[in-house]
Amino acid sequence: MKYIILGLGNFGASLAEKLTASGNEVIGIDIKMNRVDALKEKITHTICLDATDESTVTGLPLKDTDIVIVAVGENQGVNVMITALFKNLGVKRLISRAVNSLHENVLNAIGVDEIVHPEQESAERWAKKLCMRGVVDSFELNEYFSIVEIKLPSRYENKTIEDVKFRERYNLLVLTTIKNAHVPTNIGKRKTIIDVQSVATPHLLLEKDDILVLYGSNKDIKKFISSK
């Protein structure tokens, strides 16, 4: 996978290093040369430039980049400008950092694909989320074991947990499932909410668009994801 990360502060730098260590190609960009110099031996490429300058940004390999991440956090105005610019340039997938709820509303209005909250979410979690396809979220218990949310593979739709044999086949434990529930609002519209189900039983029927909450070793989780 190829990434461009704009903003090499604490979160951006940590995410860039972890994605590079996982075998991805990462271009790290910041307007401050000291940040760029600090990472030039740690990630694939580093560039010092003003990411709000459209004429400069268009020279980046955007068509070959899978994900663009706007990690700028210290200046919300700059973050919004950069995010809007890359949205207009039509990048494949755009993720941006939100500092507060108003900032998040603005990013949603721009039309980003996903929003990062570094104050609540670590770079480690985001690196895992980006590197492991199908992973919605993750929580590392230690360096060996994790709890992850994974989109249900289509081949397991309309099967029970017992049918799939998660323990026997993958050495994983299904803790619960999450569904997207659609509920009416006070103004006559409908909104989607996250509906966490009860503790999973062997007879639980798995349905389309379910999210599995799995516990197991990182090695077994990766094996399950690669088998999808």
The CATH C-level name of the largest domain is: Alpha Beta
Q: Gyration radius, to the nearest Å?
A: 20 Å
Tell me the major beta sheet.
6 strands, parallel
Q: What sequence of helices (H) and strands (E) makes up the elements?
A: EHEHEHEHEHEHEEEHHEEEEH
The helix count comes to: 9
Strand content: 25-35%
- Which oligomerization state do the chains in this entry correspond to? single chain
**What is the number of beta strands?**
13
Low-confidence stretches: none
CATH topology descriptor of the largest domain: Rossmann fold
Write up this protein.
By secondary structure, this protein is of the alpha/beta class. It has two domains: 2-121, NAD(P)-binding Rossmann-like Domain (Rossmann fold, 3-Layer(aba) Sandwich), CATH 3.40.50; 132-226, Regulator of K+ conductance, C-terminal domain (Alpha-Beta Plaits), CATH 3.30.70. The chain is built from nine helices and 13 strands. The strands form three sheets. The chain has a six-stranded parallel sheet with strand order 3-2-1-4-5-6, sandwiched between helices. It has a five-stranded antiparallel sheet with strand order 7-8-13-10-11. The protein is globular, with a radius of gyration of 20 Å. The relative contact order is 0.11.
